[in-house]
Amino acid sequence: MNLEQQVGQAFSADGVLARHNPGFQPRQAQTDMALAVAQTIDTGGALVAEAGTGVGKTFSYLVPSLLSGLTVLVSTATKTLQDQLYGRDLPGLIKAFGLPVRLALLKGRGSYLCLHRMHNAHHEGLLPDATAVRTLQRVVHWAQATTTGDLAEMPDLDERSPVIPLVTSTRDNCLGTPCPQHRTCHVNRARREAMAADLVVVNHHLFFADMAVRESGVAELLPSVRVAIFDEAHQLNEIGVQFLGAHLSTSQLLDLCRDLLATGLQQARGLADWATAVGAVDRSTRNLRLAAGHRANGKLRWTGSAPEGVEPVPWDAALQALSGALGTAGEVLDTVSELGPDFVRLRERVQMCATRVEQFRRPCAPGCVRWAETGMALRLTESPLDIAGAMTKVWQGTTDPETATTAPGPAAWVFTSATLGDDAQLRWFTEPCGLGHARIARFGSPFNYAEQAALYVPKAMAKPSDAAHPVQVAQLTASAARQLDGRTMVLTTTLRALRQIGALLREDFHAHGGPEVLVQGEMPKRRLIERFRAAALPGATGCVMVASASFWEGVDLPGEALQLVVIDKLPFPPPGDPLVEARTQRLEAEGRSPFNDYFVPEAAVMLKQGAGRLIRTLSDAGVLVVCDPRLATMGYGRRLVAALPPMRRLANGQELDEALNALRTASTTGSCWS
């Protein structure tokens, strides 16, 4: 049998999947997608596959990949999905099919324990408090048993812990081959296993970080891979833009100063005037921050010689002084570089920062946009507008910059997500990713949204620009959440709205009684989700979660845990953002409509992602409320509604109340919701 025949049989009613999973039921969309992936593997080229929620796209690309017998790279946007694939989905499929496949998991170095830095942190005793001391002790104890060094093995380790930077390495502070723990390094072990594996699971951040600095091992791996699959591909462009740009921050420079002074005094005291050399870099860094002025957190356009509102002469003088101070520090390091690998690495860091400073003194590169972010630290960024140029080179093969030779990359490329655009050609995704040549396929969700979900747009709601808008959103949410005893998620488009609506809900529930309010940022994301799930258990206090940013996607709350999703307003890109402005100007120069070709598609994809939190299984039911009357009154609203799943529409507040009461009754009695 050829690959397509093997795949078709695997997904049949009496196939391998059905025999090894009693709950498996053939789904036409899942089988069709799997066959499309198999055909792409057989013939080569690129497939862009949008697969609605519930299709089962994970198995649709894993099964043909495994059955092909080729070397495969799978990349995800989140570590959560990465761990799920490696720890659950792939081992189960390999066992079911009886395949001799070697798996490997490869993450960025920040995900792995650095034995050298852990040893130093344990003996230096410079931790900020007793909690950090106890956390480090747990890490040291765990280090004696772990074989992977992956910090994800410690689920009770808070991702915000100050201990994590002390026990992991970065590209800046890794000592490389001279490190005393090089032979037992968990990062190196993971890379060796990846090179020897038949299927490797990575993430988009690692993929693009390697494109930028060729440091993670993916560049060496890619030429040997024949099939490359990108799940959660809707994030590919924004993640790529982040990594392919140039960055320099005052916090990065001050970290360099701290490491330079500590290492100099510990290993070469008296051999150089460390205080003077480091002091010059420190002062120049702080003067650069002062040159940007005292401003609130935000992004400053940078189209001329200095960011908007910043005096060009003192700005350039501050950059020049910083360049000179870094040059002096580099000369000092040159005199002691033979004393140890720490000084060699510090010299490389100083040179990298100096190169960045000189880059930001020159005009912005063509096809890029530049800005400065202000706050406690100052961050300078020069970014490409999209990843099309960089990725076109990858599709054509990988080039070694040292030998200038090109190695053939994967023959088959698959890009998939539940949301990749709102038009038949999925141009929202394919254009910025340089995939105009790709085959396009769309596979609809098996969920019956007309019966399982309802959409309500309150037409009398204040305009999103009105000060009364967040108050009215909170009032509607409070009333609805009381009817459901929680089971509600509010998704906001800004952090300001997040704080306002969260505070208003707490004030309302405190005064009149109601569910507990969980607000993103007040505890780790994992704990928020665990608490929210627990609130749906019998006898538990209900919860309302108010969230933004990462909660719009990748949050899976099936069953009755979540029955109401409230979106505060249409998620258009912020028009004042420098990257958004630059993309707008490019479209205008091409004679295109930025609103129709950029703003509306962006909002459609984001809105669909948010709505996707509601219905996760064939038996789920719920209501989506979009508190933006423009969805019902503006012409583009029809386009945005068409991008959503085909939910039934609720005409007014009375129908909303009836739908919520039906949901509560169904939850209480176990009956069906309609």
- Side by side, the strands of the main sheet go 3-4-2-5-12-1-13
By secondary-structure content and strand pairing, the structural class works out as alpha/beta
Radius of gyration: 27 Å
Main sheet properties: 7 strands, parallel
Arithmetic mean of pLDDT: 91
Q: Uncertain regions: pLDDT < 50 for 5+ in a row?
A: 398-404
> In one word, what is the shape?
globular
> What helical percentage do the residues reach?
40-55%
How many DSSP H or I helices?
Answer: 27
Distance between the termini: 46 Å
- The tally of strands reads 20
The percentage of residues in β strands lies in 5-15%
Explain what the structure shows.
It is a single chain. The chain is α/β, with parallel strands linked by helices and 674 residues long. 48% of the residues lie in helices and 13% in strands. The strands form four sheets. It has a seven-stranded parallel beta sheet with strand order 3-4-2-5-12-1-13, with helices on both faces. Strands 16-17-15-18-19-14-20 form a seven-stranded parallel beta sheet, with helices on both faces. Strand 8 and strand 9 (379-384) form a beta hairpin. Residues 398-404 have low confidence and may be disordered.
In short:
With 674 residues, the protein is of the alpha/beta class.
Essential attributes:
single chain; 674 residues; alpha/beta; seven-stranded parallel β-sheet
